[in-house]
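Help: why these numbers?

___
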Amino acid sequence: MRRPLPRGSWAVTITLAGTAAVFVALVYLPGHRRIRQLREQIQAQEQYLAGATAMAAALTTTRQELRETIRYNRAWLAVAPGPRSSPQLCERIQHLATSAGVETTRFDPQPIEPWALLYEVPLRIVCTGRFWQLHAFVHSLEAAPETIWIKQLDLRRSPSEGELLECELNLVIFAVDPRNSDYVDYSD
């Protein structure tokens, strides 16, 4: 058999409800807020770590690119002519033309133009030959270890010969002055 609850237990109910309200206000809500703050901090730190991992990969890639750039610069500096070596370079270009079977009719070095760290050595060449000879000459210029840009190339029939072509080349040769270079060895 059941015993009915006494109706006069409102004091116990109110006390329990008050205790529960005080517990919620003083313990549960502040603890819940603190847990939410900790979760937000954890999430921010996880995002930071994920960004740091991506940054480490980017840093590794950048270091590799820097090593390749330094290696390229060293190789270029090893073969780059100096501003005072232009007579030897002109002689070498003349030899390339002769080796290809091309006859040089004009060889006109222009004044050297200094840049901040490099020198631009312009050169104008007019030569005649058959197409395959001119092609071999241009190919040998492009295969040269020095940095030689073909700024302009004009081909036309030679006025004197029927099968010969006249080729006018405007070349730019880049030379370096190591005393004025800001090259720094970052390999260590």
